[in-house]
Design goal:
alpha/beta; 2,3-Dihydroxybiphenyl 1,2-Dioxygenase, domain 1; 4-stranded mixed β-sheet; about 20% helix; 2 helices
């Protein structure tokens, strides 16, 4: 067995896939309208999106009785400020709570948190 994809639910799979295509520069590998799979130019595991009409935006940080984040993506960036500006231009928002200086927690258009991070200097 091998991991093929991480799949995120969204009200509109194509809309969320378009966001991640712009953010990461990945290409569509498969699209049937309700399920879209993106592949990195160099190959490897993929990122997929599934239309879920009843999708509820997760709340981060977690709050009682609110939909919780169950997973998030970690995206390494060379420069955190540049990566954050790019993510914002693609349609992300910056989360109100930021737990670390070397990480920027962002929210994609469907509300899924993802982390932009940089390696600390040696």
């Amino acid at each position: 067995m091998r991991l093929d994809a991480t799949t995120l639910d969204a009200p509109d799979a194509r809309e969320l896939a378009s966001f991640y295509m712009a953010l990461l520069g990945w290409e569509v590998d498969y699209d049937d309208g309700q399920w879209v799979k993106l592949r990195a130019p160099g190959g490897g595991a993929t990122l997929a999106f599934q239309s879920e009409p009843l999708h509820r935006r997760p709340v981060w940080p977690t709050e009682p009785d609110a939909p919780a984040m169950t997973a998030h993506l970690d995206i390494e960036a060379g420069d955190l400020a540049t990566a954050e500006a790019h993510a914002l231009a693609c349609g992300a928002t910056t989360a109100a709570y930021q737990p670390q200086d070397s990480v920027r927690v962002m929210l994609d258009p469907a509300g899924h948190p993802f982390c932009l991070w940089t390696r600390p200097p040696n």
